[in-house]
Specification:
The protein is mainly alpha-helical and 152 residues long. The protein is built from five helices and three strands. It has two domains: 67 residues, no CATH class; 69 residues.
Length: 152
Amino acid sequence: MRYTYDVFHGDTRLSTTTNFDAALAEVKASTDFLDIKVTDGFEPLSPQQTLRNDDDYLGWRDSLEKAHAWAHPNHSPAHYKAFIGDMEWIVAMSLTPQFRNPEVFKGSLLLMVNKYLDRLGMKDADVEEMRKAKVYLEMLIEYTETGKLTNR
């Protein structure tokens, strides 16, 4: 996941970058106290705080990114919703003839779990890939227990 780092002096935004080290260098070069506010491209991560030394900078970045990565237990982006009517793509697929056989559909869910775990470190951050695998694993558990999937 790509983060955006906004450097502020009070309420005034001084710069925006996707490179944390560049934001950190700007803060360190300043004689004023500056804030770095982090977004994931859509919304600010929290908590926000004033960063005053190297330990604050690095600890804050690590804790924010870790907290944010684990904050969304069900990864269900908008482009997966409303595939047919109000059904998600995966729910619609569970009802199609080629996947009506429960073992075939469970195999396809397991394949998705393995896909995300096998590509750790190759596309998105490891935690993001694990979160995606977890979503499909949760679907596999739900389908195994109930014989159907619900929209997320």
